[in-house]
Amino acid sequence: MGSSNFSWKLADHPKLPKGKTVAVVVLDGWGEANPDEYNCIHTAKTPTMDSLKTGAPEKWRLVRAHGTAVGLPTEDDMGNSEVGHNALGAGRIFAQGAKLVDLALASGKIYEGEGFQYIKESFDKGTLHLIGLLSDGGVHSRLDQLQLLLKGATEHGAKRIRVHFLTDGRDVLDGSSVGFVETLENDLANLREKGIDAQIASGGGRMYVTMDRYENDWDVVKRGWYAQVLGEAPHKFQNAVEAVKELRKEPKANDQYLPPFVIVDESGEAVGPIVDGDAVVTFNFRADRMVMPAKALEYENFDKFDRIRFPKIRYAGMLQYDGELKLPSHYLVSPPEIDRTSGQYLVKNGIRTFACSETVKFGHVTFFWNGNRSGYFDSTMEEYVEIPSDVGITFNVQPKMKALEIAEKARDAILSGKFDQVRVNIPNGDMVGHTGDIEATTVACEAADVAVKMIIDAIEQVGGIYVVTADHGNAEDMVKRNKSGKPLLDKEGKIQVLTSHTLQPVPIAIGGPGLSPGARFRSDVPSGGLANVAATVMNFHGFEAPGDYETTLIEVVDN
Q: Name one GO cellular component term (predicted).
């Protein structure tokens, strides 16, 4: 933005009028897949979404929501809500999380950066602690990055290393934790042969230890703190592989919810508590489940639980997890600089904006949409509403979540006449999909469909335009499959439930009485992705998108 002739003013669209109320609805975790009994969107009664698909073929299409379309390294990388909303809001594709880390590790730049230099000051006398999710799921972290970081840290002077891992079972198969721990143990044994004091210090399941998000349950972080920092946990083992195998034998045990454990020596002492003078790196690249542990590790003033002791450490995240809070203040890899988002452009061009979701996705429809930026661009032009999510239960218990309340807020905002854009995220498909409960996920999809109808009905009343899309897949495929697409079965012959996101494309539908008669999807952007949605929405507000935005998905033909 160095050039002086830069202007926030958007050019008028030659054929589309200004002044229409535009509803932008993001269905979280709503992909498009073959209809079968494990496709909850298919099994659910979703008359509204069905009618969008079958009603007007030139006003419904699929867009890519994974891999390179959202800035991730490969087409094997499933999308997620953060990169998805970044792309939806930014209108351009930025290298993201894992890809940024890959580039920094491959080039060695990570070891020259301020963050690594900072933690390195502890290597001489202290221990380097690595805390994070141990799997190759690629959503929050990746095993190969941890392996490279272990190698690079020792080459750059780390002499004593302790790993505190969290088992996954959410983005990868339940039970795969054992293999990941064996791989890690093997790597650490190799380092010990080279004279490095490297070992596993603690562990626990990601949903029960450390990795809570959105201040849902601080006890999760507390359990991690006790194991990792204080060296205290209800379970003590001398070997981590044995720990995971034993704890998985408990009734109903799974990787996501393994209780915390510490590794102890022959005398029963924890081998790796975090103490004054140590360095700590949280090696997850995805932010949402690292913000809370980062606060506990970094903040002097902290009242969410009693930390017992607060060691004087050098702490860095793999990335900065919250740009607004500047948390953590030290990080190994710098974030993508997402500038000039569609939200900022539209506000500067007079578009009054309303955004709403419930707690679990409120940050997506605001912070991530706006390029990882907290707060308003212009508080006189914008209103963001957060509806509190249910706490203390898993989302399959109340699969309707707050879909209706979100839709009611959107409806009221549309009918108020105070806003030009009304933007919501409806979380059900994703949050309930993650529980693996197929019946509940079907109910979740039905609730989301009812919410969409309420918003579309309001748009019909005010002569507006709607854009209904999604950020990535989840609910449309709830079973693990083999290479030929057949459901995988476990030893007992039961299906292996898929709790993760998918690689599927997502729908985008446009319509409403305010849509110009000749407006329809173009046929010459077949590989369009989420980043193309921003220019499309700008068009509906009567503007052309900036020249470097991914191209619009629509054209206006003269009837």
A: cytoplasm
CB 87 within 8 A of CB 535: no
* Torsion angle of C-alpha atoms 236, 241, 244, 247, degrees rounded to 10: -60
What DSSP designation does 251 have? T
Binding residues for substrate: 140, 170-171, 206, 213, 286-289, 361
Q: What distance in Å separates the CA atoms of residue 41 and residue 194, rounded to the nearest whole number?
A: 53
Residues 6 or more apart whose CB falls under 8 angstroms from that of 412 comprise none
Cα–Cα nearest to 118, from 298, 284, 315, 325: 315
Query: What pLDDT is stored for residue 78 in this prediction?
Result: 86
* Assigned token pair, 93: 């594709």
In the annotated binding site for Mn(2+), the residues are 28, 81, 430, 434, 471-472, 501
Rounded to 5 degrees, φ, ψ at 338 are: -95, 110
Task: Answer yes or no: 527 catalytic.
Answer: no
Q: pTM value? A: 0.77
Residues 6+ apart with CB under 8 A from 463: 20, 21, 512, 513, 514
pLDDT tens, residue by residue, 424-455:
999 999 999 999 999 999 999 999 999 999 99
CA–CA separation, 273 vs 127, rounded Å?
10
- Estimate the crossing angle of helix 177-193 against helix 240-247, to 10 degrees: 170
Over residues 347-368, mean pLDDT: 96
- Cα–Cα distance for residue pair 409/424, rounded to 1 Å: 9
H-state helical runs in 311-462: 342-348, 359-363, 403-416, 428-433, 438-462
pLDDT of residue 1: 47
